[in-house]
Design brief:
The complex is a heterodimer.
Chain A lengths: L1 H16 L5 H12 L8 H29 L1 H7 L2 H6 L5 H35 L6 H22 L5 H27 L5 H13 L9 H5 L6 H26 L5
Helix pairs in contact in A: 1-6, 2-3, 2-6, 3-6, 3-7, 6-7, 6-11, 7-8, 7-11, 8-9
Chain B lengths: L3 E14 L4 E14 L3 E5 L6 H8 L7 E6 L2 E2 L9 E4 L11 H11 L4 H14 L15 H12 L6 E5 L7 H16 L3 E5 L3 H7 L2 E6 L2 E7 H5 E11 L5 H5 L5 E5 L2 E7 L3 H10 L3 E9 L2 H11 L3
Classes of the chains: A mainly alpha, B alpha/beta.
Bound molecules: adenosine-5'-triphosphate (ATP) and magnesium ion (MG).
Magnesium ion (MG) binds next to helix 1 of chain B.
Chain lengths: 256, 309
Amino acid sequence: MRNIWTLAVTVIRDTARKKIFYVVLLFGLSIISISPLIPTFELGSQARFLRDISLSLTSLFGVILAVILSINQVPGDVGKRTIYNLLSKPVSRLQYLVGKYLGILMTLAIILFVMGLEILVLIYARLQVFSPVIFQGVFAVFLESAIIAAFCLGLSTFVTVPVNAFATILFYMLCHVKTGFLHAKLIDEASGGLVKIASWTFYYVIPNLENFNLSEQVGYAGGVSWTFLARISGYALLFAVLFLIIGHLVFRVKDL
Amino acid sequence: MGEFAVSLNNIRKSYRLGFSRRRVEAIHDISLEVESGKVFGLLGPNGAGKTTALKILLGIVFTDEGTGSVLGKPLGDRSAHHRLGFLPEQPYFYDFLTAEKALDLYGRFFGMGREAFKSRSSALMDMVGLRRDSHLTLGKYSKGMLQRFGIAQALLNDPELVIMDEPSSGLDPLGQKEVRDVLLRLRDEGKTIFLSSHQLSEVESICDSVCIISNGKNVTGGPLSELLEVRGVDRITLEGENPEAPARLEPLSVKVEQAEGVTVLEVESAGVYRALDAARELGMTLLSVEPYRRSLEDLFLESVKEEPV
Ligand SMILES: Nc1ncnc2c1ncn2[C@@H]1O[C@H](COP(=O)(O)OP(=O)(O)OP(=O)(O)O)[C@@H](O)[C@H]1O
Ligand SMILES: [Mg+2]
């Protein structure tokens, strides 16, 4: 556990050095520049619109960050040979991978939390509406980013950085269309056996990232229940662990 | 078995290349044993498989065939890592950390206490001559400074076994001498040292035994004293030069050399007295007679030459 923590803190240090934390400024600028676009309806729908659109933007930032943070952790250490100095210490490969992942999660958590604060302040400054419910949406974005990060980190143990970038983006898109498209194929009587099998596999093996899109609920300020949050947390954990296990199985026996 | 700090038995290792998974054999068949408390040198031409062998010891790459042990644990067993230190070839570290912070990072993996760590790390930075640069980030270190830092981090946990891949590579002459002194001190402290090196004079002066490999196979190996001694040949050193000496002594010797007032003969052991008589008649004074030792360089070149590439 101590090793995992030490590695995670090192990831955060590296992120700080690369000035990745400045994305929160970029994010702040983005939502400020979007906010004049809100339609001039009554107060309620203005706030709803702001919450909705800033949450979508958070999701976009979260996913891109997850990829940027994860994609070069392992290839970078292997390519620069910095990994020899870690694995020749009493550090196992599993600890290494999990430590990296924990560091990525902590970085994401810090950045997304600050983004949530920014949204809160912006909405209050514009409309004098206090919307702590936004943090439910931000938390869901965190879970979504955590899945993407696990996928990308797991994959980075065996594919090159450019291939990984494409694969992760493709994965992200598949995970969003799956409810609509694949589910339709699955229940469609007309679709052939092969299509059904493929749809079935995809439907159950890849996560449904729409589960983490709370724009609707947060937009209307009703929010979601704690049990709902717990359920999507469990769902995210399941997939994150699955992807990390796949990554570990490859990484465990890899020549470095 | 227990007395060996390191052993490899009939190791075979191939790397898989790219998408086609084509294999390149890096090590065909290598066996070696290193006794505890000894200094061991792994020698061989470029591409012989030295670095690969060291990576196998540390579980950084995995063997195809063969077994081995490090500090009594099977290959790749991480529990041995508490008691060993490793200096990789061309070491490289997180360049965003200062030397101090990087040592701190590595110290945490050993679970070192704060106090113990502080005194140990400052002693090591002193030892490798980096005290003044310990606040610099490692990205700003020169090649030789990185090498020195690499040596410091390899010794952080006061290891029983030190594994070093070309420890003096990239170091200035002073640095090379310092490394040699560090290694000798470690040997005096009873540590086991396993190094790969191209600095044959360095190896000759500090190693107890060596193993020479070429093309992934053992070529020769054993205690240096035995390997370098050529049985049946002695070396006679005489004071004085004499123009007649070559003509007179050459029939009696394997080799005659005269320089700066000293004559050196290499003579088959059975002919030592005849050569000495001849030298006395030439009016030369005997300085010494000793068993002939070839240099490690001679041995290396001979052994490696025999191997067709
Ligand atoms: N990661 C790798 N992938 C493919 N082949 C490799 C890899 N690492 C080493 N090799 C090959 O294995 C062989 C042995 O390499 P190794 O680095 O062990 O040599 P070495 O004895 O350390 O050489 P040097 O004296 O130059 O350091 C070489 O033919 C090299 O091309
Ligand atoms: Mg090498």
